[in-house]
Design the sequence.
């Protein structure tokens, strides 16, 4: 990052240290402020080192902002024609080294010794953890992550698994004293998971907080910013052209391509989608998000003739038939798209109305604070054996059209 405004000869060299070398590639924002705390420059970066050049002599503040919202600042004095050094040590932001990525990306507050956090120290949670896939409408356990009666203490636990390509996969957490939670897992990725007790009033917050991430850090950071509504910051990190590249390489990483597609939709630069959204929907028939993105490309770009709406209807019903969207943004767009179709057809299309009714039940379970689709069951009706419920919700089989409404309604919808 070069500061042209001051056009001096001094410069700052910075080093960012973390436990895991791979975490160096998580995007971070560097901001330079003068002694009156006026912003001189800011830039997103990856890697361990950065330089701030062209500085006049004087005092400066270097601010490091992580995707999670964690902020570190250091004051540094610069002499003309000399280098000043600044070091940011991130090793202390998480209680465990294996959770460092989560505190850099997925949470909004730092690990801190507070009464609110440590109220869980004497309330360890005993849970069951399982991962499973939906293959041809059936749920099949994934033996790569199965834990029964796992104890989750105040600091939480870290897990890793490799998801398979070609079908939807989910993480299931259940316990004797709290409702089940289900989290969509991006297929064909090395997945990192942190499970810990959640903070907040027990009557308002599910007892477990589950953080999930792939190692595509640019896509994950983009997803986190979209979740928080930080579109301006997202544009500073990744251009719409860069998001276009995520879609271009969809064969290599379909879930990240979907994130790129959602970002382009939010940015409103629909010409960047080209025919790639259509291809994403066609080439990956197991991914609901592709069909949703293409449907919204049609919604935003066509003249909304009957023929247009019939194609939009085809895509949205196709998406719902594939299962639950991997990303929360997809659930929202699926619901809003069906609402538009319902209005266009004057609530007279039986397929649309039936699907819309079932999606209404589904969204009552969605945790809207998460970027990856997370379903919380608010009532204990299915404690101990919730799998038959989720099988009807996430499966693409015909049975879901008949059974979802009643099952989800009983679960709290």
Sequence:
């Amino acid at each position: 990052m070069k500061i042209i405004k001051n056009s001096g000869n001094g410069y700052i060299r910075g080093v960012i240290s973390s436990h895991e070398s791979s975490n160096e590639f998580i995007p971070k924002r560097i901001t330079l402020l003068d002694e009156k705390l006026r912003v001189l420059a800011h830039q997103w970066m990856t890697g361990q080192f950065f330089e701030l050049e062209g500085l006049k002599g004087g005092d400066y503040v270097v601010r490091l902002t992580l995707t999670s919202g964690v902020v570190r600042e250091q004051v540094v004095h610069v002499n003309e024609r000399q280098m000043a050094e600044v070091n940011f040590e991130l090793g202390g932001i998480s209680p465990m080294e294996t959770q460092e990525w989560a505190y850099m990306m997925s949470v909004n507050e730092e690990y801190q010794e507070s009464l609110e956090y440590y109220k869980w120290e004497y309330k360890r949670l005993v849970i069951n953890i399982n991962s499973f896939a939906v293959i041809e409408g059936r749920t099949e356990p994934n033996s790569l992550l199965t834990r029964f009666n796992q104890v989750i203490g105040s600091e939480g636990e870290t897990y890793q698994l490799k998801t398979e390509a070609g079908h939807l996969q989910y993480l299931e957490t259940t316990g004797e004293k709290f409702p089940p939670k289900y989290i969509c897992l991006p297929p064909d990725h090395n997945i990192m998971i942190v499970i810990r007790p959640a903070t907040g009033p027990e009557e308002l917050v599910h007892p477990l907080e589950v953080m999930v991430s792939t190692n595509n850090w640019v896509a994950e950071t983009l997803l986190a910013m979209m979740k928080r509504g930080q579109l301006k910051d997202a544009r500073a990190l990744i251009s719409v052209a860069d998001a276009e590249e995520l879609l271009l390489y969809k064969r290599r990483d379909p879930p990240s391509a979907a994130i790129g597609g959602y970002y382009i939709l939010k940015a409103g630069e629909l010409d960047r989608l080209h025919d790639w959204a259509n291809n994403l929907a066609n080439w990956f028939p197991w991914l609901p998000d592709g069909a949703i993105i293409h449907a919204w490309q049609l919604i935003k770009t066509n003249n909304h003739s009957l023929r247009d709406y019939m194609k939009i209807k085809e895509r949205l019903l196709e998406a719902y038939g594939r299962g639950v969207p991997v990303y929360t943004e997809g659930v929202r767009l699926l619901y809003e798209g069906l609402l538009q179709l319902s209005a266009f057809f004057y609530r007279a299309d039986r397929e649309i109305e039936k699907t819309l009714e079932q999606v209404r039940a589904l969204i009552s379970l969605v945790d809207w604070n998460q970027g990856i689709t997370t379903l919380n069951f608010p009532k204990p009706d299915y404690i101990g054996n919730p799998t038959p419920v989720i099988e009807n919700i996430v499966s693409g089989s015909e049975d879901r059209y008949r059974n979802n409404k009643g099952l989800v309604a009983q679960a709290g919808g």
